């Protein structure tokens, strides 16, 4: 019993030290976790729209590799013209408005939306039908109007290309198929689904003209 009584102060000090160390470390650990979460979000998200960026989209696509997916590419018609005439802040308003719209549409169908760069966005819909993807593309490309401008309301619409891809289909190939369909969608002035045999315009110059058709 004597040895136990003698050891009590030592044991008490150990316990108090352990508790104090834990209490001290917990805020540090929480802060480190928060910093890691912030860095991870920045690495996978677009700062302007708040959507996934290209890396984030690729990660989401990879996580659904075991099922078929619908991939939709969306870009804005005459966006460069609007940006040049009204300035980058107005352009950012348009991009943010489209981002919010795509985020809502993707959420309704348990999918993801992201910004690939510039005015080009993508939506990934896992296990969705072609009809669902077509309905989402139609809603995604509806006109966006910015009203609070000195020169009056500005309206910008969009174009879309769709690709229905099976399980295991490579990300780059899915993007290429949807991008080819987008060129055809620009010409047709409606969302177009990729079909076997569909190709880009014959030359780079033709491709640029196809992209710029709605920029005039």
From TrEMBL:
Gene3D superfamilies: 3.30.70.270. Residues 67-198 form the GGDEF domain. It holds the Pfam family GGDEF. It comes from the Bacteria. This is GGDEF domain-containing protein. The lineage of its organism: Bacteria, Bacillati, Actinomycetota, Actinomycetes, Micromonosporales.
